[in-house]
Amino acid sequence: MTVSRLRTALDTRSPIWGGWITGPTLIGPEEFARTGYDYVGFDAQHSYLDDADIAGILRRLDNVDIGTAVRLPNADPAPIGRVLDAGADAVIIAMIESADQAAAAVAATRYAPAGIRSFGPLSAGLGLDPAAHESRVSVFAMIETAAALTNLTEICAVDGLAGIYIGPADLAISMGANPIGATRHQDVLDAIVRVHRVATEAGLITAIHASEGKTGHAMAQLGFRMITLAAESQALRRGAAEHLREATGQ
């Protein structure tokens, strides 16, 4: 498992599409995979899951053809190590505002002397080669504040980052805009376009949380390579509403 499913998807098509998991579900990732999504993101920041819950779900996905990423609230090496040891393809570290914070995130995914990750693979599919473990991990710095925009060039220059992942809602709040429909605010959209340009020029993957299909389409038109669409709760609500509409004729 030296090349992750997420990396394979990114290397063979663009953009790739993701679902989002916020609750303790076993069927959610499988249904996203069955529908044709390329990856699922697990949320350990805003959800009913912690890193230990996610690690348990990840270990059940060895035979499911879908990439995996985990969003964590900071660069604490212990939870990062747990989800990577369970087989996560990538980590997305929230609220990165400086190059030092981005470098700390990378260090948490690397063994000594390059980093501070502790060796302890949980998934048998990972094997026992530390170099292989490191090579399959993608690290994304989440850009979602005005302060991060100020330090964007320095963040994008951090060695070992695979990409930049934009959080439009928090970015909008930090810029004084409403988080609902964040990409419809021109100044927020301008900032998103700038992040995409600077990250692309630095050779990084550009990713974004779109939250729904129309915004996802718009972000693909801008050139984003990795786009997260609906959470499992949104997908369930939309599907349930459509079934109810069909049944009632309303």
Structure notes:
By secondary structure, this protein is an alpha/beta fold. The protein has twelve helices and eight strands. An eight-stranded parallel barrel has the order 1-2-3-4-5-6-7-8, surrounded by eight helices. Helix 4 (77-85) links the parallel strand 3 and strand 4. Helix 3 packs parallel to helix 4 (77-85). It is globular. The N and C termini lie far apart (49 Å).
Question: What topology emerges from the helices and strands here?
Answer:
Blueprint: H1 5-12, E1 16-21, H2 27-35, E2 39-43, H3 51-58, E3 67-72, H4 77-85, E4 90-93, H5 99-107, H6 130-136, E5 138-143, H7 146-150, H8 152-156, E6 163-166, H9 168-174, H10 186-201, E7 205-209, H11 213-222, E8 226-231, H12 232-248
Parallel strand pairs: 1-2, 1-8, 2-3, 3-4, 4-5, 5-6, 6-7, 7-8
Helix pairs in contact: 3-4
Which structural traits does this protein have?
250 residues, alpha/beta, eight-stranded parallel beta barrel, 44% helix, 17% strand
Count of beta strands? 8
Average pLDDT figure: 95
Radius of gyration: 18 Å
Helix-strand makeup class: alpha/beta
Low-confidence stretches: none
Note the main sheet: 8 strands, parallel, barrel
Quick rundown:
The protein has 250 residues and is of the alpha/beta class. It has helices at residues 5-12, 27-35, 51-58, 77-85, 99-107, 130-136, 146-150, 152-156, 168-174, 186-201, 213-222, 232-248, and strands spanning 16-21, 39-43, 67-72, 90-93, 138-143, 163-166, 205-209, 226-231.
